[in-house]
Specification:
Helix content is about 25%, strand content about 35%. It has about 150 residues and is of the alpha+beta class. It has a single domain, classed as START domain (Alpha-D-Glucose-1,6-Bisphosphate, Chain A, domain 4, 2-Layer Sandwich), CATH 3.30.530. The chain has a seven-stranded antiparallel β-sheet with strand order 1-7-6-5-4-3-2.
């Protein structure tokens, strides 16, 4: 049996879970930390489409939306045969942190086609979550120049 490469990351953010959760479902908040544009319809079957600063377009759909605990969406790139739209799954959970007004964010990206994709997505998600740490706490992460 082959084990699929999966990205798993954890970050603590200085904001309550409901605030951090909103950054995954509200297009205006989403653009503050990730992407040039976002078309988000946060309901099962709703569109998840983001234009990245690189001009790559990520597309999928929401699978589960459970405010403020969990969001799951599919992921892939328009025009990319290696990771086509909706071919992988991203699951993000939000738990109260160790101190008041903090959130432990756990992100798992499943179904990546190989180790190279896992490594590049791990680097990208780490970069983006570092930007989310700033944005969700009320700061300005500045323009996204990529990892």
């Amino acid at each position: 049996m082959t084990v699929e490469p999966t990205v798993e990351l954890e970050f603590t953010i200085q904001a309550r879970p409901e605030i951090v959760f909103a950054f995954f479902v509200d297009p205006l908040k989403y653009r503050r930390w990730k992407g040039e544009d976002a078309e988000l319809d946060p309901r099962p079957g709703g569109i998840y489409r983001v234009i990245m600063p690189s001009r790559d377009v990520v597309r999928g759909e929401y699978v589960a939306v459970e405010p403020p605990r969990r969001v799951v969406f599919t992921w892939g790139f328009e025009g990319n045969a290696g990771i086509p739209p909706g071919s992988t799954t991203v699951e993000v959970t939000f738990e109260p942190g160790a101190t008041p007004d903090t959130t432990l964010v756990r992100l798992k990206h499943h179904g990546l086609p190989d180790e190279s994709a896992r490594e590049s997505h791990a680097m990208g998600w780490r970069h983006l979550l570092e930007r989310l740490v700033i944005a969700a706490a009320g700061g300005d992460p500045g323009p996204d120049t990529g990892p």
